[in-house]
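hey
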């Protein structure tokens, strides 16, 4: 199938990044947020990123202008009616997502594909909450979306070959490197990343070293772009805690169990960069 117009539900960190890369790849892109204020914030983030790209010589002014011309914001789901693909990047809550899919399915054509950018919920369960489980899948992007090359393409039990191929091709058309991931908690990347991050916290609790030394060790010793605590603050401690709990619930293996310190930091509101304090202060 031909994808020409892309809808994005949610203009937060992930939604705005996804909308940006779709618009930069030449798709007419319509982003829907629940409130104008949130939409304005998301568009501000996109403009800032594109301006930064121009400054760094990564994006030409013409590419920036074309990307912005391809982008439309709305607070009405009805405006998504011409979309061939709708990518949902809203709150990680099954019922909220199901409500959003129901609203989208009332307006889009029967050919349209629906996907979720969820990092933790079951794609087959989400697909089952729509009227098109065959035209549903997962496209999991990574933060910061315009920079990170990877997209995990996740098939629900019900996703057809045609839908899967359309999604894989779409990810490639964005200039991304797609990989096929199973519909199991954590997919491929978080299944390996989250136990590593949790182990870093556990090791810190047990006195392995200072935050700075552990971060420096992994950064300079292994060539990781960020040490585990810088990355935890970047991803968000609440997000990590949420994903870890879902993984632990499904796999029942100790490596996915959130350490006590992580829970307490979340309870204290130390969520990382977004709250001004996590393992480090910002
Ligand atoms: N527009 C275009 N390109 C830009 C740009 C912009 N506004 N800003 C930066 N770039 C480019 C830079 O030019 C640079 O490109 P080259 O490598 O070709 O030189 C590249 O992006 C890196 O930028 P910087 O050098 O400015 O920044 P950095 O080296 O400090 O890297 C980072 C920043 C990319 C975030 C890096 O620290 C990193 O990769 N961190 C790890 C991020 C990560 O692991 N993300 C995944 C989190 S897990 C997740 O998202 C999934 C989940 O479910 C929780």
């Amino acid at each position: 199938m031909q994808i020409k117009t892309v809808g994005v539900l949610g203009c937060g960190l992930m939604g705005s990044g996804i909308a940006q890369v779709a618009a930069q790849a030449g798709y007419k892109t319509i982003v829907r947020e629940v409130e104008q204020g949130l939409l304005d914030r998301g568009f501000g983030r996109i403009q800032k990123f594109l301006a930064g790209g121009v400054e760094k010589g990564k994006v030409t002014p013409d590419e920036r202008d074309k990307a912005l011309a391809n982008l439309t914001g709305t607070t009405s789901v009805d405006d998504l009616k011409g979309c061939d693909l709708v990518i949902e990047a809203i709150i990680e809550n099954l019922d909220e997502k199901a409500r959003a899919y129901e609203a989208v399915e009332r307006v889009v054509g029967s050919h349209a594909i629906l996907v979720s950018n969820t990092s933790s919920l079951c794609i087959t369960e989400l697909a089952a909450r729509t009227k098109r489980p065959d035209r549903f899948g997962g496209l999991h992007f990574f933060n910061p979306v315009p920079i990170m090359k990877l997209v995990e393409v996740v098939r629900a039990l019900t996703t057809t070959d045609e839908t899967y191929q359309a999604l894989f091709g779409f990810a490639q058309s964005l200039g991304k490197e797609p990989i096929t991931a199973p519909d199991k908690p954590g997919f491929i990347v978080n299944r390996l990343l989250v136990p590593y991050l949790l182990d870093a916290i556990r090791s810190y609790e047990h006195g392995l070293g200072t935050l700075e030394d552990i971060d420096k060790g992994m950064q300079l010793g292994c060539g990781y772009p960020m040490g585990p605590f810088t990355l935890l603050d970047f991803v968000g401690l609440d997000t990590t805690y949420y994903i870890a709990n879902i993984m632990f619930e499904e796999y029942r293996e100790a490596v996915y169990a959130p350490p006590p310190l992580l829970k307490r930091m979340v309870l204290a509101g130390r969520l990382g960069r977004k709250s001004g304090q996590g393992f480090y202060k910002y």
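The domain at 5-181 is CATH 3.40.50.720 (Rossmann fold). The chain has two domains: 5-181, 189-274.
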